[in-house]
Design a protein that fits this description.
The complex is a heterodimer of chains A (222) and B (263). Chain A is mainly alpha-helical and 222 residues long. Helix content of chain A is 81%, strand content 0%. The mean pLDDT of chain A is 91. In chain B, 35% of the residues lie in helices and 25% in strands. In chain B, the strands form three sheets. In chain B, strands 8-9-10-3-11-12 form a six-stranded mixed beta sheet, sandwiched between helices. In chain B, strands 2-1-4-5 form a four-stranded antiparallel beta sheet, covered by helices on one side. In chain B, strands 6-7 form a two-stranded antiparallel sheet. Classes of the chains: A mainly alpha (222), B alpha/beta (263). Chain B: This is Amino acid ABC transporter ATP-binding protein.
Chain lengths: 222, 263
């Protein structure tokens, strides 16, 4: 039996839908994770000592346990506490929560990177807290936050492969199935490895473009 | 309550067990330039920051144009925090200029000056930028409107920061060591802007080590040491001999640094 891609490529419809599902859970999961992480970091900054301390615990638990364990606990353990989710919503939720814990730390560092005087200047001019976040803090931290965020997005993309274990029909699951049926497992894995890698490069490229656009003011010459 | 632009009454500020401001009372009349001088750590910057409510006093009160700043006392004499909206209203009377300029690096000079007009005063972009240009012209930087802070010298940055504070037309301007981060040449251009503001009748409170500026532009000199306000006087009195012994000692250090050889 030789190395033959044609067997795999003949199942192209199933593969394309698997790739589509991977991109969907990745993009939506990363967006949710970033938004939840930002809300957590903001609550920690402005919510007082109790909120800050209270939010530290779940972040540490999530960062301190494997994603696969969290995923299984949510999907198989959820029903015991009345949380019965289908595979896709369970996978998306687990991915969002997992990523949010890391994004919360990224945005916390972002908040801390802005000199307090820049906020004081806005306060003295009568900016509201929301205006300060929107017009001063977010744009100023953007440059610092982008590289670790892209990194996190890349990690989350690779973690989506684990969703195959709770039967989310993403590309690792599709490729495993095709590979087993057609006795072309290695070919299937090579193919999806390439797809994952292309997506990672794409994320990196977008990140670099965003960085370049945002660093305009730093590179500006007199 | 008083008729003055700023009234500081029995202000106390403690950080833990350290008393930074010890029962300070100070009246700053409208249209006057009040200079706060004293050695580092004397509390002068903290006092100024309390006037902008960037520091919360432990006790005592501050009135800006007759209105309480930051805290109000209820019927039972208990201190309550002002609502955020109330605080913004009182603060809108003052403009603050910092030692480190604190311009927003992602906005141009024009963006920095027009931001508050757009966000706080809700003006349209064109109108806000037109008003901002007036202020930039006033500090002599209309030809730098499109520059980012990273493209400006320290003196230019501080002048943009002054224009930014002036944009909302405050009644009082607070300056926290505005020239301490600048070399002597750049210091001059910033002090000139401040001189012309004073000449227009702006009420100003200036924390400074520029004794010459304090003596020539100031109407009122307050000397602080170890959190205590040692005296407040007109410069003609404050700097006339015989001086307060602590001020004498403080001024001696200026001459000790070799400046006396130049005189």
């Amino acid at each position: 039996m030789g190395f033959d891609f044609n067997v795999i490529l003949s199942k192209q419809d199933a593969l394309v839908s698997g790739i589509g599902m991977t991109i969907f859970v990745w993009v939506v999961g990363t967006l949710f994770a970033a938004v939840i992480g930002f809300v957590i970091a903001t609550a920690r900054r402005y919510g007082g000592v109790i909120v800050d301390k209270a939010l530290t615990v779940p972040i540490e638990v999530i960062r301190g346990t494997p994603f696969l364990v969290q995923l299984f606990l949510l999907y198989f353990g959820g029903p015991y506490i009345g949380l019965s989710l289908d595979a896709l919503p369970a996978g998306l939720l687990a991915l969002s929560i997992y990523g949010a814990a890391y994004f919360a730390e990224i945005f916390r560092a972002g908040y801390q990177s802005v000199p307090p005087g820049h906020v004081e200047a806005a306060e003295c001019l009568g900016f509201t807290r929301i205006q300060i976040i929107r017009n001063i803090l977010l744009p100023e931290m953007a440059l610092l936050v982008i590289p670790p965020s892209v990194n996190m997005a890349i990690i989350l993309l690779k973690e989506t492969a684990l969703l195959s274990l709770i039967t989310v029909p993403e590309m690792t699951m599709t490729a495993s199935a095709i590979g087993s049926q057609e006795y072309a497992f290695v070919e299937a894995m090579v193919l999806i490895a390439l797809v994952y890698w292309v997506l990672v490069e794409l994320a990196g490229l977008l990140g670099r473009l965003a960085e370049k656009k945002l660093s305009r003011y730093r590179l500006a010459k007199a | 309550m008083s008729d003055n632009a700023i009234s500081v009454q029995h202000l106390v500020k403690r950080f833990g067990t350290t008393t930074v401001l010890d029962d300070i009372s100070l009246e700053i009349p409208r249209g006057q330039v009040s200079c706060l001088i004293g050695p580092s750590g004397s509390g002068k910057s903290t006092l100024l920051r309390c006037m902008a409510f960037l520091e919360e006093a432990t006790d005592g009160s501050i009135f800006i144009e007759g209105a309480p700043l930051g805290f109000v006392y209820d019927g039972a004499g208990k201190r309550q925090r002002q609502s955020a909206t109330e605080l913004r209203k009182v603060r809108s009377q003052i403009g603050m200029v910092f030692q480190q300029f604190n311009l927003w690096p992602h906005m141009t000079a024009l963006g920095n000056v027009s931001a508050a007009l757009r966000r706080v005063r809700k003006m349209g972009k064109a109108e806000a930028e037109e008003k901002a240009m007036v202020q930039l012209r006033k500090v002599g930087l209309e030809n730098r409107a499109g520059h980012y802070p990273s493209q400006l010298s320290g003196g230019q940055q501080q002048r943009v920061a002054i224009a930014r504070s002036l944009a909302l037309e405050p009644k009082i301007m607070l300056f926290d060591e505005p020239t301490s981060a600048l070399d002597p040449e750049l210091t001059g251009e910033v002090l000139n802007v401040m001189r012309s503001l004073a000449a227009e009748g702006m009420t100003m409170v200036v924390v400074t080590h520029e004794i010459g500026f304090a003596a020539t532009v100031g109407n009122q000199i307050s000397f602080l040491d170890h959190g205590k306000l040692l005296f407040t006087d007109a410069p003609s009195k404050a700097f006339a001999k015989p001086r307060h012994p602590r001020l004498e000692q403080f001024l001696d250090t200026y001459l000790d640094r070799g400046a006396s050889t130049l005189v």
